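User: Predict the full complex structure for these chains.
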Amino acid sequence: MLEFINGDVACAEGAIAAGCRFFGGYPITPSTEIAERMALRLPQVGGAFMQMEDELASIMCVLGASWAGKKAMTATSGPGFSLMQESIGLAAMTETPCVIVDVQRAGPSTGLPTLVAQGDVMQSRFGSHGDYRTIVLAPANAQEMYDLTIRAFNLSERFRTPVIVLSDEVCGHITSGVDLREKVDIENRKKPGSSECLPFKADEDLIPPMAVAGEGYRFHVTGLTHNEKGYPVTSAEVQQALVTRLVDKVEKRKGEIVDAEFFMLDDADMCVIAYGSEAGSAKKAVKMAREKGIKAGLLRPKVLWPLGNFEDYVKDMKKVLVVELNSGQFYSDAKCWNRNTKLLGGYGGELHRPDDILKVMEVF
Amino acid sequence: MEIIIAGFGGQGIMLAGYLLGRAATIYEGKQAVFQESYGPEARGSACKANLKISDEPIDYPIVESADYLIALSKEGYELNEPLLRGPVIYDSSLVPGVKRKGYGIDATGIAESLHNRIVANMVITGFFLGVTKIIKKESFEKAIESGVAKRFVELNKTAFEAGYSEGIINAEK
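Assistant: Here is the predicted structure of the two-chain assembly.
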């Protein structure tokens, strides 16, 4: 069904379609419409909405809801995302499926509350302490706010890990036609098959089955390094095995996760790399460049982390231009793929104008 | 096509923009993006609705200049007139001194004659569509029916109709 809604509302509808039945959050521009929509929609589908006292409590109640067996999410913006980092690490360590939406605004600190930026790219990757791997999806428009939120839930259930939807103010606030799909593929977490439950003993796919509270199993959940039953163990061997698996379950299976749009790259000698709402500006610039005879194309990662093997697409290009609303957080990886890579960065407030991107392409 | 609707918070600027986008997208199969822009106040500060409508996918959603400006305040007219390529459609009771090509209507006066000045937004939107025909009348009426709270549908449609019939008289050649 086609609806005319903004990206935040589309995100909430995607969550409901994916089976999310719990939202815990604290309102913050430009993500507030997600909370508003969930407060309206969740009671209609037998779910629960809780407004918490702050973002620390918001993410913690989401983790609790997940261990109670519900698909759960929260939504925030930069300042709240910073506050949530400690518990995103707890979710990674306890392998708790959940979805965190960060509708980015310009920072640092409270920054520009109502204006766009992409400054949280590295924070979404390595925001919490310790070693782990997150999955970070980057929607570029309202339709993708819907589609990638569904995908975020499916990935979080499949990999038993927090998944971050890294949106931005333009993506969240612009209203456009969104197809709320009739049929949505939904994945659910693996459950224990026998009477015993070892919630941290992985199968061959590196993912352990997850029992939830109230099903009669006896186990422990802690942020401390733990054994297969979940009890704390202070040893280098257990730490090594556990964190290796936390990293490997994402890195070794990233072929299932990574996704990107490739636009006019087949005959291109200049590759523009952009993601999120900036990709719209970049795509327009690429089309304008083509009209001027510049053989340009666009590589748009829909998944930022884990990092895809994009080197194969980029290494033979004559020129690579990374366009992002930060000082080069994605560029720092992308420049390793091709020696002739430049950055068109910025600090937010507004998207790059296609004309301005084109000017840089023309003199590259 | 790019459209700016400018006025003060409380005049229904956003609703007018939203319904135009809704009509274009859902009832005419076009692409539309709609962006709100306003100050921190709930009412009374300058605000505008930015709209792009196209038959092709819209890559860059930001409105930087406009083919049409719908002005419901003097300030909204003066602030956005420099961005305008085409005609201005304005409330003649609120926007005096329009020098450039435009179409004026006493939208507020017509709304008052319907006993509710808050539907001046629908009067001027109807007038705009009557003049420009960029969206079919039926499509916009359907957008009102599905996009406005039930108890206000008739009032909004009546106001829209009143503006539309004035627009037809002044239609763009």
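Chain A has two domains: 1-257, 262-363.
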